Amino acid sequence: MKTLLTALLLLGLSAAASSAELYYFFDHKCGACQKFDREVGGHYSRTQEGQQAPIKKVEFQQWRQLDPKPYTDVLAKPVFATPTFVMVHEGKEVERLTGYSNDELFWLAMQHMLYRVEHIADSE
Known about the structure:
This protein has a 4-stranded mixed beta sheet with strand order 2-1-3-4. It has one domain: Glutaredoxin, CATH 3.40.30.10. Helices cover 46% and strands 20% of the residues. The protein is globular, with a radius of gyration of 15 Å. A hairpin with a 2-residue loop joins strand 3 and strand 4. The protein has 6 helices and 4 strands. It is of the alpha+beta class.
């Protein structure tokens, strides 16, 4: 029964959310990135938010060395620090969060970013 309920919930995800992605710009030496990976990163993909906006990890130092840099057509402004989380919907940046202090604030920011995605989809 629980499996059926979970499947129905996943099927009920909106088309807007399924077209969203969360770009995660990280650095292996970044303490806040390491903390995010420990507290959230390992199970993010199994959460409802992770289903709505799958994470795309971008190693910041490697990305900075590339010319031209991938994803610049998606970003509203340059990424300058790690961690930076960029919510992308239909190939455009909707919202971003720079920094990470704890999982509670991250999940609140995720709710806000997914709300923005839903609001954009509803207005189209």
